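Schema walk-through. Below, the input block comes first and the output block second. Nothing else is stored per chain. Lengths vary across the set, and this one has 157 residues.
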Amino acid sequence: MEFGNATGGNKGIVLPWVTQTSAVTGAVPGTIVFDSRAAEQKVYFAKAATPNSTVVSQWVDLSAGALTPTTAFTPDTNLENNTAKVLVGGNPVTDTTPGVLVLGATDKAMVLPRVASISDIASPSAGMMVFLTGTTTNPINQLAVFNGREWTFWTKP
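--- output ---
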């Protein structure tokens, strides 16, 4: 995977579109999806009630406060391959974690695509996620998610 350079690029990662979070079978804590329903069109994060649990207790809205897009999205009509999976950094024989892209390394993390400004992304896609590096005059060190209409930002408290 290539997301641009480490100091800031103009690319993001587009999350999997789902028809609703409750339809995601086998989700584990840490799963992130884009709910494409017309009434939603939001990015959600699967959370566990207790540390180290493998059971999702709730879906946290990462698009909280964002306006719903004025135009509903139409997912493609291609048939889904529910067993499709790319495992990075794990053992394909023993790793049964469900997901389209599973980062299975126990000693590494994914570095999100880094951009200096959301304006660097000319045509963001619904469900896009980036890490906003910013400058001293713009917000810095924020997770940014795009719902198809506007960006929502998350900063460490």
